[in-house]
Specification:
Elements (H helix, E strand, L loop, with lengths): L4 H29 L14 H9 L2 H33 L4 H13 L2 H14 L6 H25 L3 H9 L4 H12 L1 H17 L2 H6 L8 H11 L4 H36 L1
Amino acid sequence: MRASRMERAVNYMVLVLFAAQALIPVLYVVILSLRSERIGDDSWGHVENYATAWEQGRFSQYMANSAIIAVLVVGLALVLSLMSGYVLGVLRPRGGNVLFFVFLLGIMVPSEAIVLPMFFDMRALGLTDTVWAVALPQTAQSLAFGTFWMRAFFRGVDPAILEAARIDGAGDLRILVSVLLPIGRPAIVTQVVLTFMWTWNDFLIPLVMSPSGAMRTAPLGLAFFQGQYTQGSTLLAAGAVLVALPMVILYLVLQKQFISGMTEGAVKG
C-alpha cells in the first residue's frame, strides 16, 4: 500500500522537526565558538578561538590519550567480539546459550555499580593511572555488546555458504577471515563506530581509574576546562567542538557502512 501525498508530506515534516531539534543546538555551539571573547564585541568568525582553547585547555595531551584508549578498546573489543560471536553464532557449543546470557550481563549492569571494585582490582595490580586501567574495563563493556551484535549477525548468515566453505576444506579460522568478514563489513563498521563513540565519550572510568589525571581524556579535560572558564563560554564552546570533531569525522567517513549495518540489523531483528 503506497502512502498518499499528504502522508508523505507529514512524514517529511516530522523528520525535519526532529532533525532541527538535533541540529540547532549543535549549530548554536559552533556559532558561539566563533564569536569574539571580548565583552561588547559582536564580531564573528574568530577561528583563532580554537587554537586558544586547544592551547589553554591542553587538549593536545587529552586528545592523544583519548585516541590511544579508543584504538585499544575498539581493536581489542572487535577481535574478541568476532571470535566470541563466531563461537556462539556459528559453532553453537553445548552451554553456549548460558554463556551468551553471561555476556549479556555486561550490557545490563551499569558502570556505576562496578567501577569502585574495578578500581581496587586495578590498584592491586598496579595499573591505576595507566592506559590499561582505562582501556581494559571499557573493552570488557564493549565486548558484551560486541558479542551480542556479532552473534546476531553470524546467526543470520545462510548456512549453505558455511557448508560450501567446509566442503572446500576451509577451517573455522579461514571461514571467519575469508568468508564472514567480507560479507559482515557493515556489521563490523557499525560496531566500530558505536564502540568508538562510547569509548570517546566515557567520563566515569577515566575519572576513577586515573586519580592523578595522567590518563585524562578529552571529555574529562573539557569538564576541567569548563571549571577554569565558567565565564568564558566562547572558549568552552570551541573546546566542545574540538572534542566532538573526531566522532563527527569518523561517522562521515563510515556513514554508508554504518547505516547499512544498522538497517540490516533492524531487518534481521
